[in-house]
Amino acid sequence: MHFALSLNDECSARLFSPSSLRSNLFVESCQNPGMHYKATLILLLLFVAGAAMAHPEDELCVPGQDGMDPALCAALAEMNSAEGDLSQTDMLPILDEAGNERSILSTAGLYISIGIGHILPDGADHILFVLAIFLASVRLKALILQISAFTVAHTATLALAASGVITPSSSVVEPLIAFTIAFVAIENLVFKDMTKWRPLVVLGFGLIHGLGFAGFFGELGLPPGQFWSALIGFNVGVEIGQLSVILVAAVLGLLVRKWLQDPEGQSYYRAYIARPGSLLIGLTGLWWGATRLLA
Q: Which of 40, 91, 95, 211 is the most buried (most CB within 10 A)?
């Protein structure tokens, strides 16, 4: 559009050539010069609004530039071309950077990185849940037992939901995930030692978190031939992300216990680290749960 030309030239020549643009607004702007700036401003606002409604991958999936992974770009482009009506069986296979169909190992490797990214840095709710478990587990055996229960549970529901066996609603799952965080953190405040039922509680809550993982995984969309390799890779990536959180927390916890001269973690560590940390996590979980219910 020829915005750079003068107002007189625009009015005399009607440079906005598409007939749809020669509206009453522009006629009035020619008769009243003050209206010209209003017309220009309205056009700019319409242009920005149109850009905001575009698909984000249109800007992120630009050849030769850094952005979304080419495999995901191909899947998103295919989905957009059918206006979102593609079923899993209709989707084209995910390709690598060279344009070839990804092998099983290549697909798994891609989704390992996606799974890690879903936890670090994007999985704040899952990170807080794992940290709440960690703060209550001053002994390694108790920590391993809870993390194992959580892993088994979320792996099971992730597989069931991602394969379509169960179809949970995100409006139900997301608030529940937040409240599981609050429950575990509050339990840390009420009980000094880990309760006997804690592993069962973590197992049950892991089932809910698996549904949350499945919601994200399902949004990616995959053709049948690459589904299971992607699912396994994604789950492995999630585990790597969670174990990374535990590892960092364990190293910091050991250093803090040594500094506080509380190697068992039952005195100063609990008073100054575990309880305040659990309180903060619990309040965060309650806030997230309430806001998600009201959203």
A: 211
| pLDDT tens-digit series, residues 96-112 | 777 788 888 999 999 99
Provide DSSP, 57-104: HHHH--TTSS-S-HHHHHHHHHHHHTTT---GGGSPPPB-TTSPBP-H
Report yes or no: 20 and 57 within 8 Å, Cβ to Cβ.
no
Determine whether 221 is exposed, middle or buried from the number of CB atoms within 10 Å of its CB (0-12, 13-18, 19+): middle
Tokens of 9: 């030239």
Whether the CB-CB separation of 228 and 148 falls below 8 Å is answered with: no
Q: For residue 292, which of 175, 210, 179 has the smallest C-alpha distance?
A: 175
Residue 214's nearest CA partner among 248, 270, 164 is 164
Give domain limits for the chain.
7-52, 57-90, 104-294
Burial 172-181 (b: 16+ CB within 10 A, else e): ebbbbbbbbb
Structure tokens at 3: 């915005």
pLDDT in tens, 109-118: 999 999 999 9
pTM: 0.68
Q: Comparing C-alpha atoms, which of 24, 57, 46 is closest to residue 220?
A: 57
Q: By the 8 A CB rule, do 185 and 201 touch?
A: no
